[in-house]
Design a protein that fits this description.
single chain, mainly alpha, 77% helix, 0% strand, disordered C terminus, Sodium:Solute_Symporter, Na/solute_symporter, transport
Length: 548
Amino acid sequence: MDDLQLNGLGGPLTLALLAVFFGGTLLISLTIRHRKDDADGYMTAGHGIGFGISAASMTATWIWAASMYASATSGYTYGVSGPIHYGLWGALMILFIYPYGRRIRALAPNAHTLAEVMYARHGRSSQLMLAGSNILGSLISLTSNFIAGGALISMLSPFSFSQGVAIIAAGVLLYTLWSGFRASVLTDFVQVCAMLGAVVVIIPAVFFAVGGPQVFVEGSSHVTPEQASFFSSEAFLNQGAPYIAAVLAYAIGNQTIAQRLFAVREDLIKKTFVTATIGYGATIIGIGMLGVVALYAGIKPMDGDPNNLIPQLAATYLGPVLLAVFFVMIIGALASTADSDLSALSAIAMTDVYGRSGLPTNPKTMLMIGRATMIVATAAGLYFAGGRMNILDLLVLVGALWGALVFPVIASFYWDRVTNSAFTVSVLTALACFVPVRFGWIPMDGLLGYVSDVLAVIGVGTVAGLMIFGFFGRRPAIVAGIIASLVTAPFAIGFLHDYAVLSSALIAYAVSTLVCVALSLRNKGRFDFALIKARTDDFGPAEKRPAE
């Protein structure tokens, strides 16, 4: 199985598929462009998007090319339970955040960014932390999608990696630039339909081309007992548990998700998140099973990189028609997330850098800033993609920042004693504890290892409590957190520090929670949550609102 013939699309067919895909999305964007644009519509589409489009947009944004590749890598590395851990926990995180989304939207119905709400709640430092982490996170995500597109085009066509990156970047920018977030959510609907339709066809086609059910019988010699088990502890500790912590952090802190929260009609938030949960889980688990098939079939990834598995399987086992369908599926996945990143970055620049900076605001100027931000962000993504920067290390840092932010952000929307200093100090302290543990800068043996494990156990309780709190309130959450920590402690203390990715993430949760609670309890003042709504109003249409 090592020497497999790779099929390709050819130059003319590749260009035709790209022209149809990006040309179609551009036409959709042009049909929704208003002759008299307003800044609020550009960022949140008027806060009234319906169920179908909002659910499709949430699903498409959560599913990106890297998540498809990562799920397959998980299946290839950990066996049958790998994609389940990757897809199931990622899907459930969408479900777990929706009650928090309803609370945030109730407090700030006309907000545009989560950082803007933090500014209304606390002040400038908490706003800058959220805005800064999202700028970095969206740039990294944008770069990752450009890289995925360039690699796909270079593998399946005569074009080079650099040419592929440039085509993807230009195509996404072209249809997103003028209509902003409106273009992103409407094209997401088309893209997610294409993706889900392709998944239904592609997965069975590859599965039966490789050998069908017989491959699991004949390929059993290629897997270890852990890889063959649905209850693999190795898969849970290395994939499932870290992903639970990471995705919860991503969901709470990420502007691409928050932007859709502020855009969907308020009474449709629950339906939107539940539908996105099902759509994401089914798609990503299904795609991940291709990695399991490759493992059982004894297929070796090209260049030793598991990220090549999905395009490698497609190029090996699919004919021209299905290969074209696969190509459109991956392009749709990466475009749906890349346009969300551009929209998120423009909203941050328009709202947090300019709109809520205290300077006189003009919506026409805001629109210009938003569009200029998209152009600059695309250029930056092209530069980083060409420079082959270590995306994984940057993602680790952004994930840590979001993990450190989760409890202070959630607590700020429910607890009136949380202060700006409690928010800021807790996040910075958590980061200071996370970095040396994650990168192994200090030896984790002896007493320090046990302290790390105890904090990680508290982090387990924090994550469990936050999951329960949104649905059932404070007391059940506290009980769930205590039970989770007590159950975990006998198994975790003494060895959990050996899993740096998991333990460092849990430590970030624990430290930010402990410090935030301790400092907030010292505050005797009370915050009036009604102030948030008054401080996060719409900016108004450009043709009606003069410069202040």
